[in-house]
Amino acid sequence: MDKTVKTYKPVKAKKTYTPTQCVWGFLKYFSLCFFGFIALLPIVSCVITAFKSDKEYQSTSVMTLPKNWLNFSNFVSAFTKANMGRAFFNSLIVMVVVLGVSVIIGSQLAFVLNRFKFPGNKLIRNLFFFASLLPAVAMQVSVYNIMGKLGFINHLYGYIIMMCGTDVISIYLFIQFMENIPVSLDESAIMDGASYWTIYWKIILPLLKPAIVTSCILKGVSVYNEYYCANLYLQSPDVRTLATSLYVFVGPMGSKYNLICAGVIISFLPALIVFILFQKQIYSGIATGAVKG
């Protein structure tokens, strides 16, 4: 006769919370919901305003829902009147060139500062650190004079050259990542007859891919959203970037915020599409690039 053996699962004791833990838990989730609401409120307001006509925007509050959600005339007007097609093209050129130059210059500087020990190495690192502490707005007077004397104002190439300035954050990111790359790779390549340029181009640069992705994300977002310098140095309508193209709807007689909100949504779509398509690469690049020195 078969005997069945009954197995009993241990009963888990219910976890009890003290009043202090309940209060802290409530405050934690309340703060998350509150700040999430604060972050989403401008986006919701922008979407609602983008679908309103001029008369409806002037006669209703900001959070009043539009009567017609299929009114895309504001998007068409914002795209054509602000010449956003040209602005997209200008922003794309600026971002591609600036990212390429910044990655090459930043990685080469990091390679020299990390792999070569010479007098003044620490001084150069400290100078980069102190340069990052200087406010950019305070230096715009001298920079504007230099740009004017060189004839770079109202020219896209002048703005690109200015934006290609060395990114201190990218340099320190590359240096920290290179500290995890063993020097034995360089030594074995030198024994095989490789030059320093070959070591950098064929060994170091491919291994810096996660750090390059992180640097491109940080630099790309700042260049794409940059408004102050673009508005200061690119005043001609033909060379405006995407961040300054919507400035045409702002004037002394009033601002057309329904068209501005429609243009903001249009400018937000490319970044959203890129994020959706490459979110795995972006997340892996940030997670791998965030290394400790």
State the gist of this model.
The protein is mainly alpha-helical and 293 residues long.
Task: Compile the SSE list and pairings.
Elements: H1 19-50, H2 54-59, H3 73-81, H4 84-115, H5 121-133, H6 140-150, H7 156-163, H8 168-178, H9 184-191, H10 196-207, H11 209-224, H12 228-233, H13 242-245, E1 250-251, E2 254-255, H14 257-277, H15 279-289
Antiparallel strand pairs: 1-2
What does the model show?
This protein is mostly helical. It folds into two domains: 2-76, no CATH class; 77-292, MetI-like (MetI-like fold), CATH 1.10.3720. Helix content is 68%, strand content 1%. Strands 1-2 form a two-stranded antiparallel sheet. Helix 1 (19-50) crosses helix 14, helix 4 (84-115) crosses helix 8 (168-178) and helix 8 (168-178) packs antiparallel against helix 11. It is globular. The termini are far apart. Residues 289-293 have low confidence and may be disordered.
**How many strand units?**
2
For this structure, what is the CATH class of the largest domain? Mainly Alpha
Determine the number of helices (DSSP H or I, runs of at least 4 residues). Answer: 15
Class by alpha and beta content: mainly alpha
**Biggest β-sheet strands, sense, barrel:** 2 strands, antiparallel
Spans of at least 5 consecutive residues whose pLDDT stays below 50 are 289-293
- For the CA atoms, what is the radius of gyration? 27 Å
Helical residue percent band: 55-70%
Tell me the count of domains: 2
Shape: globular
Q: How much of the sequence is in beta strands?
A: under 5%
CATH architecture of the largest domain: Orthogonal Bundle
